[in-house]
Amino acid sequence: MIEEGKDTDCKSLRFLRGNQTDWNELAKDCACFANAQGGMILIGIEDGEKLPPVTQSTVDRNFPDLIQKNIGHRTINVGLIVTIEVAENNAEYIRVQVLRSAQTIASTTDGKYYIRVHDECKPVPPDEMARLAADESAFVWEVQTNRRVPENSCDMIKRLAFLRDIRGSQRVSDFVKQKSDDEETGLRNWLGRLVDMELVVRTGKAKGTQYSINPEFVRKINFKGKTTLKNIEDHRLVEPNYKDLEAYPNSGFGEIHRRIGLEISPSKVKRMLKAMVIKAIIDATGTRKWTRYSIKQSMQEND
C-alpha cells in the first residue's frame, strides 16, 4: 500500500501525455526532493489512492528512458532511478526515485530552486539560499565514491601505482596495508550504495563477499542486452591483466589474451600491457612473439 507524504508524491498515468507532458513541472518536483532527503514520485497512482487502477499497464516500455532524458535536460544536480513497478493488485506504475543531492544544491536549468516541505513543493526565496547551502554536507574526500562518480573516470594504472606506494610506505600502518584493494580505494562504500538501492545483491562475508546485479532489477527494466568484453575500455584491462599475471607469471601475450577474453581486441590488450611495462607495474623479457610478462618484483614485495 502506498501513501503520499513528505517523501512520496503520486501522479496519474495521464500525466505522461506525449508532447503535452508538463516536463517542467516534473523537473521542479524532482529538484524539490533532491534538496530535501530524496523521495519517490509514483506515476500511475491517482491522488488519494493507495494502489494503481486494476488492469493498468504502462503501454510504452520506453517511459523510464524518456523520463531520465527529459529531467536530465531540465535540472542540475538531480539524480534519478526510474523503473516500471508492479503493485500488489498486479497493476503497473512508474517509480521515479529521486536521490538526495548531498553535496550541492539542485535546481532547474532556468535557475530556480525548490525544496520539499511536508507534502508540498516550495520555491526557495533568496534569503533562504544561504541556509540551504549550509545544510548540505561538508566536502568529505573519503566518501567521494558515493557521489555517483563514474567508475571509468578512474585511471587503473594510477590506482595500482597508488596501492603500491601505500603498501611500500614506512608511514602507513600495517592495519591499512593489510586491507584489500577494494577497501583501500573505497569501492565497497560505492557498492554499498548500490546494495541500499537494491540494484546490486551481496553474498558472503568479509573477504569472501561477492556482488552481482539484482536479477529482479534487470527483469523490471526489461533488459535484453548480452554481456561482452568486446567494447571494454582500455583502463579496465589493467586489473584483469594484473590478476592474470599474479596467477600465471612469465606468460606470453597469446596466453594472457586467451585467459582474459578472446573477444577483446588484441591491439587493445597489447597496448595496455605496454603501458603497464612503462609504468613499472610489470616486467617484459624477450622480444616480439617471444616476449614474456611478469609482475614487477617490487610490486610483489609490497602486496
CATH topology title of the largest domain:
Methyltransferase, Cobalt-precorrin-4 Transmethylase, Domain 2
User: Are there runs of 5+ residues with pLDDT below 50, and where?
Assistant: 138-145
CATH class of the largest domain: Alpha Beta
Strand residue percentage: 15-25%
Shape, per Cα inertia axes:
elongated
Q: Evaluate the radius of gyration.
A: 24 Å
Q: For the terminal residues, how far apart are their CA atoms?
A: 52 Å
Number of helices: 12
* Residue share in helix: 25-40%
Q: What can you tell me about this protein's structure?
A:
The protein is of the alpha+beta class and 303 residues long. It folds into three domains: 8-135, Methyltransferase, Cobalt-precorrin-4 Transmethylase, Domain 2 (2-Layer Sandwich), CATH 3.30.950.30; 146-220, no CATH class; 234-302, Winged helix-like DNA-binding domain superfamily/Winged helix DNA-binding domain (Arc Repressor Mutant, subunit A). Helices cover 35% and strands 17% of the residues. The chain has twelve helices and twelve strands. A four-stranded mixed β-sheet has the order 1-2-5-4. It has a two-stranded antiparallel sheet with strand order 3-6. A two-stranded antiparallel sheet has the order 7-8. Helix 1 (23-35) packs across helix 2 (63-74). The longest helix has 13 residues, at 23-35. The radius of gyration is 24 Å and the shape is elongated. Residues 138-145 have low confidence and may be disordered.
Which tags fit this structure?
elongated; 17% strand; Methyltransferase, Cobalt-precorrin-4 Transmethylase, Domain 2; alpha+beta; four-stranded mixed beta sheet; two-stranded antiparallel sheet; Arc Repressor Mutant, subunit A; 303 residues; 12 helices
